Protein backbone atom coordinates (compact mmCIF):
# COMPACT_ATOMS: atom_id res chain seq x y z
CA UNK A 1 0.00 0.00 0.00
CA UNK A 2 2.74 2.47 0.94
CA UNK A 3 4.44 1.90 -2.42
CA UNK A 4 1.53 3.54 -4.20
CA UNK A 5 2.05 6.71 -2.17
CA UNK A 6 5.28 7.14 -4.13
CA UNK A 7 3.19 7.65 -7.26
CA UNK A 8 1.22 10.52 -5.74
CA UNK A 9 3.77 13.35 -6.35
CA UNK A 10 4.10 12.51 -10.04
CA UNK A 11 0.33 12.22 -10.39
CA UNK A 12 -0.09 15.68 -8.84
CA UNK A 13 2.55 17.13 -11.18
CA UNK A 14 0.85 15.56 -14.20
CA UNK A 15 -2.45 16.99 -12.97
CA UNK A 16 -1.01 20.50 -12.85
CA UNK A 17 -0.53 20.74 -9.08
CA UNK A 18 3.20 21.45 -9.31
CA UNK A 19 3.62 23.05 -5.88
CA UNK A 20 1.73 20.32 -4.05
CA UNK A 21 3.56 17.62 -6.02
CA UNK A 22 6.91 19.16 -5.11
CA UNK A 23 5.89 19.48 -1.46
CA UNK A 24 5.01 15.75 -1.32
CA UNK A 25 8.10 14.65 -3.25
CA UNK A 26 9.47 12.99 -0.11
CA UNK A 27 6.92 10.22 -0.69
CA UNK A 28 9.09 8.96 -3.55
CA UNK A 29 11.23 7.23 -0.94
CA UNK A 30 8.57 4.49 -0.90
CA UNK A 31 9.75 3.46 -4.37
CA UNK A 32 12.93 1.97 -2.95
CA UNK A 33 12.85 -1.68 -1.97
CA UNK A 34 15.50 -1.17 0.70
CA UNK A 35 13.42 1.49 2.46
CA UNK A 36 10.26 -0.57 2.30
CA UNK A 37 12.09 -3.69 3.49
CA UNK A 38 13.39 -1.81 6.53
CA UNK A 39 9.92 -0.45 7.21
CA UNK A 40 8.36 -3.91 6.90
CA UNK A 41 10.90 -5.42 9.30
CA UNK A 42 10.38 -2.80 11.99
CA UNK A 43 6.60 -2.81 11.53
CA UNK A 44 6.40 -6.60 11.85
CA UNK A 45 8.57 -6.54 14.97
CA UNK A 46 6.47 -3.85 16.66
CA UNK A 47 3.24 -5.56 15.64
CA UNK A 48 4.46 -8.86 17.14
CA UNK A 49 5.44 -7.13 20.37
CA UNK A 50 1.98 -5.58 20.54
CA UNK A 51 0.13 -8.76 19.59
CA UNK A 52 2.23 -11.14 21.69
CA UNK A 53 0.81 -10.53 25.19
CA UNK A 54 -2.73 -10.35 23.80
CA UNK A 55 -2.47 -13.61 21.86
CA UNK A 56 -0.71 -15.44 24.72
CA UNK A 57 -3.39 -14.26 27.14
CA UNK A 58 -6.16 -15.35 24.76
CA UNK A 59 -4.59 -18.77 24.23
CA UNK A 60 -4.35 -19.25 27.99
CA UNK A 61 -7.97 -18.22 28.53
CA UNK A 62 -9.08 -20.66 25.85
CA UNK A 63 -6.81 -23.31 27.41
CA UNK A 64 -5.10 -23.90 24.07
CA UNK A 65 -2.00 -25.44 25.56
CA UNK A 66 -0.68 -28.98 25.41
CA UNK A 67 -1.14 -31.07 28.53
CA UNK A 68 0.38 -34.25 27.11
CA UNK A 69 4.06 -35.11 27.39
CA UNK A 70 5.74 -34.24 24.11
CA UNK A 71 9.05 -35.45 22.71
CA UNK A 72 10.97 -32.57 24.24
CA UNK A 73 9.58 -33.49 27.65
CA UNK A 74 10.51 -37.13 27.16
CA UNK A 75 14.07 -36.15 26.27
CA UNK A 76 14.63 -34.36 29.55
CA UNK A 77 15.40 -37.29 31.79
CA UNK A 78 19.07 -36.33 32.17
CA UNK A 79 18.64 -33.14 34.16
CA UNK A 80 18.64 -31.29 30.85
CA UNK A 81 14.98 -30.38 31.19
CA UNK A 82 14.32 -28.27 34.28
CA UNK A 83 11.09 -26.50 33.32
CA UNK A 84 8.10 -28.57 32.22
CA UNK A 85 6.57 -27.70 28.85
CA UNK A 86 3.11 -28.81 29.85
CA UNK A 87 0.48 -26.11 29.77
CA UNK A 88 2.49 -23.69 27.62
CA UNK A 89 0.17 -22.15 25.01
CA UNK A 90 0.62 -23.45 21.49
CA UNK A 91 -0.63 -22.06 18.15
CA UNK A 92 1.52 -18.96 18.69
CA UNK A 93 2.39 -19.11 15.00
CA UNK A 94 -0.79 -17.08 14.52
CA UNK A 95 1.25 -14.13 15.79
CA UNK A 96 3.85 -14.61 13.04
CA UNK A 97 1.29 -15.12 10.28
CA UNK A 98 -0.76 -12.03 11.19
CA UNK A 99 2.28 -9.78 11.53
CA UNK A 100 3.78 -11.13 8.31
CA UNK A 101 0.64 -10.78 6.20
CA UNK A 102 -0.29 -7.32 7.47
CA UNK A 103 3.17 -5.80 7.04
CA UNK A 104 3.70 -7.32 3.60
CA UNK A 105 0.38 -5.92 2.40
CA UNK A 106 1.35 -2.51 3.80
CA UNK A 107 4.90 -2.25 2.50
CA UNK A 108 5.20 -4.42 -0.63
CA UNK A 109 4.15 -3.71 -4.20
CA UNK A 110 1.67 -6.38 -5.15
CA UNK A 111 2.68 -8.89 -7.82
CA UNK A 112 2.32 -12.59 -8.60
CA UNK A 113 5.38 -13.54 -6.56
CA UNK A 114 3.82 -12.10 -3.42
CA UNK A 115 0.45 -13.63 -4.26
CA UNK A 116 1.93 -17.14 -4.52
CA UNK A 117 4.00 -16.73 -1.35
CA UNK A 118 1.20 -15.28 0.79
CA UNK A 119 -1.21 -17.92 -0.52
CA UNK A 120 1.24 -20.60 0.60
CA UNK A 121 1.55 -19.02 4.04
CA UNK A 122 -2.23 -18.91 4.49
CA UNK A 123 -2.84 -22.47 3.23
CA UNK A 124 -0.09 -24.02 5.34
CA UNK A 125 -0.97 -21.91 8.39
CA UNK A 126 -4.57 -23.13 8.11
CA UNK A 127 -3.36 -26.73 7.85
CA UNK A 128 -1.08 -26.24 10.85
CA UNK A 129 -3.84 -24.52 12.83
CA UNK A 130 -6.15 -27.49 12.25
CA UNK A 131 -3.38 -29.89 13.28
CA UNK A 132 -2.69 -27.89 16.46
CA UNK A 133 -6.41 -27.75 17.21
CA UNK A 134 -6.71 -31.55 16.97
CA UNK A 135 -3.64 -32.05 19.17
CA UNK A 136 -4.88 -29.68 21.86
CA UNK A 137 -8.58 -30.50 21.92
CA UNK A 138 -7.95 -34.24 21.86
CA UNK A 139 -4.68 -33.96 23.82
CA UNK A 140 -3.14 -36.20 21.20
CA UNK A 141 0.44 -35.42 20.19
CA UNK A 142 -0.05 -37.15 16.83
CA UNK A 143 -2.62 -34.59 15.66
CA UNK A 144 -3.85 -34.77 12.08
CA UNK A 145 -2.82 -37.89 10.19
CA UNK A 146 0.45 -37.37 8.38
CA UNK A 147 -1.10 -38.56 5.11
CA UNK A 148 -3.65 -35.73 5.18
CA UNK A 149 -0.95 -33.14 5.88
CA UNK A 150 1.17 -34.53 3.06
CA UNK A 151 -1.75 -34.44 0.62
CA UNK A 152 -2.37 -30.74 1.32
CA UNK A 153 1.34 -29.91 1.05
CA UNK A 154 1.71 -31.88 -2.18
CA UNK A 155 -1.42 -30.24 -3.57
CA UNK A 156 0.02 -26.79 -2.87
CA UNK A 157 3.40 -27.70 -4.37
CA UNK A 158 1.82 -29.21 -7.50
CA UNK A 159 -0.45 -26.17 -7.95
CA UNK A 160 2.50 -23.76 -7.78
CA UNK A 161 4.65 -25.87 -10.11
CA UNK A 162 1.86 -26.12 -12.71
CA UNK A 163 1.12 -22.40 -12.40
CA UNK A 164 4.77 -21.52 -13.02
CA UNK A 165 5.06 -23.94 -15.92
CA UNK A 166 1.92 -22.54 -17.63
CA UNK A 167 2.89 -18.90 -17.03
CA UNK A 168 4.87 -17.61 -20.01
CA UNK A 169 7.08 -15.23 -18.02
CA UNK A 170 7.69 -17.76 -15.22
CA UNK A 171 8.06 -21.08 -17.03
CA UNK A 172 11.86 -20.75 -16.99
CA UNK A 173 11.72 -21.18 -13.20
CA UNK A 174 10.60 -24.77 -13.83
CA UNK A 175 12.24 -25.55 -17.16
CA UNK A 176 15.72 -24.41 -16.13
CA UNK A 177 17.76 -25.78 -13.25
CA UNK A 178 20.27 -23.59 -11.42
CA UNK A 179 23.00 -25.45 -9.56
CA UNK A 180 25.11 -23.79 -6.82
CA UNK A 181 28.71 -22.96 -7.80
CA UNK A 182 27.75 -23.17 -11.49
CA UNK A 183 26.81 -20.01 -13.35
CA UNK A 184 24.94 -21.50 -16.31
CA UNK A 185 21.43 -22.89 -16.15
CA UNK A 186 20.66 -26.48 -17.16
CA UNK A 187 17.73 -26.54 -19.56
CA UNK A 188 15.11 -29.28 -19.44
CA UNK A 189 13.69 -30.71 -22.61
CA UNK A 190 9.98 -31.25 -22.94
CA UNK A 191 7.68 -30.12 -20.14
CA UNK A 192 10.29 -29.92 -17.44
CA UNK A 193 8.83 -32.60 -15.19
CA UNK A 194 12.07 -32.77 -13.25
CA UNK A 195 11.84 -29.05 -12.57
CA UNK A 196 8.27 -29.44 -11.40
CA UNK A 197 9.32 -32.29 -9.12
CA UNK A 198 12.11 -30.15 -7.62
CA UNK A 199 9.59 -27.35 -7.05
CA UNK A 200 7.24 -29.66 -5.16
CA UNK A 201 10.07 -31.20 -3.12
CA UNK A 202 11.42 -27.76 -2.19
CA UNK A 203 8.05 -26.60 -0.83
CA UNK A 204 7.00 -29.83 0.89
CA UNK A 205 10.48 -30.62 2.19
CA UNK A 206 11.10 -27.16 3.60
CA UNK A 207 7.71 -27.04 5.31
CA UNK A 208 8.21 -30.41 7.01
CA UNK A 209 11.87 -29.81 7.86
CA UNK A 210 11.09 -26.63 9.80
CA UNK A 211 8.20 -28.44 11.47
CA UNK A 212 10.53 -31.23 12.64
CA UNK A 213 13.05 -28.70 13.95
CA UNK A 214 10.41 -27.01 16.13
CA UNK A 215 11.07 -28.92 19.34
CA UNK A 216 13.11 -26.65 21.61
CA UNK A 217 12.55 -23.09 22.80
CA UNK A 218 13.66 -20.69 20.07
CA UNK A 219 15.29 -23.34 17.89
CA UNK A 220 13.07 -23.35 14.79
CA UNK A 221 12.41 -19.61 14.68
CA UNK A 222 16.07 -18.73 15.30
CA UNK A 223 17.28 -20.99 12.49
CA UNK A 224 14.53 -19.62 10.26
CA UNK A 225 15.78 -16.08 10.89
CA UNK A 226 19.28 -17.09 9.78
CA UNK A 227 18.01 -18.67 6.56
CA UNK A 228 15.69 -15.73 5.88
CA UNK A 229 18.62 -13.32 6.17
CA UNK A 230 20.33 -15.26 3.38
CA UNK A 231 17.22 -14.95 1.24
CA UNK A 232 16.90 -11.23 1.87
CA UNK A 233 20.22 -10.92 0.06
CA UNK A 234 19.35 -13.44 -2.65
CA UNK A 235 15.94 -11.95 -3.43
CA UNK A 236 17.36 -8.43 -3.64
CA UNK A 237 20.08 -9.60 -6.02
CA UNK A 238 17.63 -11.61 -8.14
CA UNK A 239 15.39 -8.56 -8.53
CA UNK A 240 18.20 -6.19 -9.50
CA UNK A 241 19.25 -6.67 -13.12
CA UNK A 242 22.66 -4.98 -12.70
CA UNK A 243 23.77 -6.90 -9.59
CA UNK A 244 22.34 -10.17 -10.91
CA UNK A 245 24.29 -9.78 -14.15
CA UNK A 246 27.48 -8.91 -12.27
CA UNK A 247 27.19 -11.96 -9.99
CA UNK A 248 25.97 -14.15 -12.86
CA UNK A 249 22.83 -15.25 -11.10
CA UNK A 250 19.36 -15.43 -12.70
CA UNK A 251 17.55 -12.11 -12.91
CA UNK A 252 13.86 -12.52 -12.05
CA UNK A 253 11.81 -9.42 -12.75
CA UNK A 254 9.61 -8.55 -9.77
CA UNK A 255 11.46 -10.81 -7.34
CA UNK A 256 12.72 -7.77 -5.46
CA UNK A 257 9.36 -7.51 -3.71
CA UNK A 258 10.15 -10.82 -2.02
CA UNK A 259 12.90 -8.89 -0.23
CA UNK A 260 10.13 -6.99 1.54
CA UNK A 261 8.47 -10.31 2.41
CA UNK A 262 11.72 -11.69 3.84
CA UNK A 263 12.29 -8.50 5.84
CA UNK A 264 8.78 -8.78 7.27
CA UNK A 265 9.47 -12.40 8.19
CA UNK A 266 12.63 -11.38 10.02
CA UNK A 267 10.73 -8.72 11.95
CA UNK A 268 7.89 -11.12 12.78
CA UNK A 269 10.39 -13.85 13.68
CA UNK A 270 12.33 -11.60 16.03
CA UNK A 271 9.09 -10.47 17.63
CA UNK A 272 8.02 -14.06 18.15
CA UNK A 273 11.44 -15.07 19.47
CA UNK A 274 10.98 -12.42 22.16
CA UNK A 275 8.25 -14.64 23.63
CA UNK A 276 9.58 -18.01 22.47
CA UNK A 277 13.13 -17.85 23.87
CA UNK A 278 13.88 -20.11 26.83
CA UNK A 279 11.77 -20.51 28.89
CA UNK A 280 9.12 -20.14 26.21
CA UNK A 281 5.92 -18.28 26.97
CA UNK A 282 4.34 -19.65 23.79
CA UNK A 283 5.05 -22.25 21.10
CA UNK A 284 4.55 -21.55 17.41
CA UNK A 285 3.03 -24.97 16.81
CA UNK A 286 2.41 -26.34 13.33
CA UNK A 287 0.50 -23.12 12.62
CA UNK A 288 3.80 -21.29 12.38
CA UNK A 289 6.34 -23.95 11.45
CA UNK A 290 4.50 -25.34 8.41
CA UNK A 291 3.77 -21.83 7.12
CA UNK A 292 7.22 -20.26 7.46
CA UNK A 293 8.94 -23.42 6.24
CA UNK A 294 6.74 -23.63 3.18
CA UNK A 295 7.20 -19.94 2.40
CA UNK A 296 10.98 -20.39 2.35
CA UNK A 297 10.55 -23.19 -0.17
CA UNK A 298 8.30 -21.06 -2.37
CA UNK A 299 10.71 -18.11 -2.28
CA UNK A 300 13.65 -20.37 -3.18
CA UNK A 301 11.74 -21.64 -6.20
CA UNK A 302 10.64 -18.16 -7.32
CA UNK A 303 14.19 -16.82 -7.36
CA UNK A 304 15.57 -19.94 -9.00
CA UNK A 305 17.61 -21.10 -5.98
CA UNK A 306 16.02 -24.27 -4.50
CA UNK A 307 19.40 -25.93 -4.03
CA UNK A 308 20.83 -22.94 -2.21
CA UNK A 309 17.95 -23.38 0.27
CA UNK A 310 19.28 -26.88 0.97
CA UNK A 311 22.66 -25.36 1.87
CA UNK A 312 21.36 -22.35 3.82
CA UNK A 313 18.85 -24.52 5.67
CA UNK A 314 21.44 -27.14 6.52
CA UNK A 315 20.19 -27.42 10.11
CA UNK A 316 16.68 -28.17 8.86
CA UNK A 317 18.06 -30.72 6.41
CA UNK A 318 20.06 -32.50 9.11
CA UNK A 319 17.05 -32.59 11.42
CA UNK A 320 14.84 -34.07 8.69
CA UNK A 321 17.46 -36.64 7.65
CA UNK A 322 17.90 -37.73 11.27
CA UNK A 323 14.19 -38.53 11.47
CA UNK A 324 14.19 -40.41 8.15
CA UNK A 325 17.27 -42.42 9.11
CA UNK A 326 15.93 -43.23 12.55
CA UNK A 327 12.52 -44.28 11.26
CA UNK A 328 13.87 -46.26 8.31
CA UNK A 329 16.52 -48.10 10.34
CA UNK A 330 14.07 -48.90 13.12
CA UNK A 331 11.54 -50.40 10.69
CA UNK A 332 14.23 -52.31 8.80
CA UNK A 333 15.81 -53.86 11.90
CA UNK A 334 12.42 -54.72 13.40
CA UNK A 335 11.41 -56.50 10.22
CA UNK A 336 14.74 -58.34 9.88
CA UNK A 337 15.66 -59.05 13.50
CA UNK A 338 12.29 -58.80 15.23
CA UNK A 339 13.43 -55.88 17.33
CA UNK A 340 13.80 -52.29 16.18
CA UNK A 341 17.17 -50.60 16.67
CA UNK A 342 18.00 -46.90 16.73
CA UNK A 343 20.81 -44.89 15.21
CA UNK A 344 20.30 -41.90 17.51
CA UNK A 345 19.24 -41.83 21.13
CA UNK A 346 16.21 -39.89 19.94
CA UNK A 347 15.06 -38.10 16.80
CA UNK A 348 14.93 -35.35 15.62
CA UNK A 349 18.61 -34.75 16.22
CA UNK A 350 18.22 -31.97 18.81
CA UNK A 351 16.63 -34.47 21.20
CA UNK A 352 19.58 -36.83 20.67
CA UNK A 353 21.89 -34.22 22.14
CA UNK A 354 19.49 -33.59 25.00
CA UNK A 355 19.65 -37.29 25.77
CA UNK A 356 23.44 -37.01 25.80
CA UNK A 357 23.15 -34.42 28.55
CA UNK A 358 23.28 -31.11 26.72
CA UNK A 359 21.09 -28.43 28.25
CA UNK A 360 18.30 -27.16 26.02
CA UNK A 361 19.87 -23.72 25.68
CA UNK A 362 23.20 -25.33 24.71
CA UNK A 363 21.57 -27.29 21.91
CA UNK A 364 19.81 -24.19 20.60
CA UNK A 365 22.92 -21.98 20.72
CA UNK A 366 25.10 -24.58 19.02
CA UNK A 367 22.53 -25.20 16.30
CA UNK A 368 22.44 -21.42 15.74
CA UNK A 369 26.20 -21.53 15.18
CA UNK A 370 25.80 -24.36 12.67
CA UNK A 371 23.04 -22.40 10.97
CA UNK A 372 25.32 -19.37 10.58
CA UNK A 373 28.04 -21.56 9.07
CA UNK A 374 25.58 -23.00 6.55
CA UNK A 375 24.41 -19.47 5.74
CA UNK A 376 27.98 -18.36 5.00
CA UNK A 377 28.48 -21.32 2.67
CA UNK A 378 25.19 -20.52 0.91
CA UNK A 379 26.21 -16.90 0.36
CA UNK A 380 29.59 -18.00 -0.94
CA UNK A 381 27.81 -19.57 -3.93
CA UNK A 382 27.32 -16.03 -5.23
CA UNK A 383 31.03 -15.61 -5.93
CA UNK A 384 32.36 -19.16 -6.26
CA UNK A 385 31.15 -19.91 -9.77
Overview of this structure, please?
Residues 74-80 have low confidence and may be disordered. Helix 3 runs parallel beside helix 12, helix 6 runs antiparallel to helix 7 (146-166) and helix 10 runs parallel beside helix 13 (285-302). By secondary structure, this protein is an all-alpha fold. It has 17 helices and two strands. The chain starts with 7 loop residues before the first helix and ends in a 5-residue tail after the last helix. Helix content is 67%, strand content 1%. A hairpin with an 8-residue loop joins strand 1 and strand 2 (186-187). Strands 1-2 form a two-stranded antiparallel sheet. The protein folds into two domains: 1-29, no CATH class; 32-380, no CATH class.
Largest beta sheet: what is the strand line-up?
1-2
Number of strands: 2
Strand content: under 5%
Structural class, from helix and strand content? mainly alpha
Please provide the ordered H/E string of secondary-structure elements. Answer: HHHHHHHHEEHHHHHHHHH
Spans where pLDDT lies below 50 across 5 or more residues:
74-80
What integer value in Å does the Rg equal?
Answer: 22 Å
Total discrete domains: 2
Per the principal axes of the C-alpha atoms, what is the gross shape?
A: globular
User: Tell me about the biggest sheet?
Assistant: 2 strands, antiparallel
- The total count of helices amounts to 17
N- and C-termini, Cα separation:
38 Å
Amino acid sequence: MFYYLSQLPQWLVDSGHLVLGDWLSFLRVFQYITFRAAGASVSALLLCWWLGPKIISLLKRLKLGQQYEDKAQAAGGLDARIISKKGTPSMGGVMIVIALDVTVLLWARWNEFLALTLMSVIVLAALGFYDDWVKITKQDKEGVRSKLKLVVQLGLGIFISIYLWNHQSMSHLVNTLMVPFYSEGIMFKGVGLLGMLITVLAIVGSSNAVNLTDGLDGLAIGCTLIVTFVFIILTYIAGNVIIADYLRVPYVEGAGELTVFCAAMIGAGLGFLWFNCHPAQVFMGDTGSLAIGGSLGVIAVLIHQPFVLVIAGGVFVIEAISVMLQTGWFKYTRRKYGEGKRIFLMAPLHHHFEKKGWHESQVVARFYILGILFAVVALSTLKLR
